[in-house]
Amino acid sequence: MMYLFMNGLNGSNGQPDTTAFVALVTPYASIGSEGATLTFMAAGTVPVQVGTLTYPADKNTFTMIQEIPLLAEFTEYTVTFAEPGNTYLAIKHANTIQVSPIFVDDVLFQQITTTNIKDKDLPGLHIYPNPADAYLIIESPEEISSVEVFNISGNKVFSEKSPGQTRISFPASRFAPGCYLVQVLTKDGALLARKVLVAR
Asked: Which domains does the chain have, with CATH numbers?
């Protein structure tokens, strides 16, 4: 089913109400210890904000994880939730001054587990050192297409495309101490994830 939602209008003057809370809210979801992803198709000319919502009827309990600038044509987007817990997930209109519709379809919530990150298919994948300090190194028996790093709040803090490479490294010193989720996408489409601790 396709959903259409837009920022509200002020009933007194017919002008855009940028304080309106207009969102597509999922059923109550459980994010496991390995994290979870929310994948959806969307199209529009204004951004959407994806996050968690403690109480669906209370807009003040919305916590944004990521704001996504949309393309006019339908495109697939994925947001990672790294912090375990039970919550509602929301795809929210960013409420710009421009009154514009957003179309959302094919929403899929999926746990990140050892079965869907395909660990057993890549026994030679290594992400080290862990804990990391100065640098983080990724070695894979298959070509790496891209690497993404998310903090505990689910915000993407690093992204790099590396077509044709089986070993990459990048500074861990750019990250604040804490727990991070490293996602590796291989050339054959396997998505693998590891939790890494950055320590000083």
From this structure: 3-111 (2.60.120.200), 119-198 (2.60.40.1930)
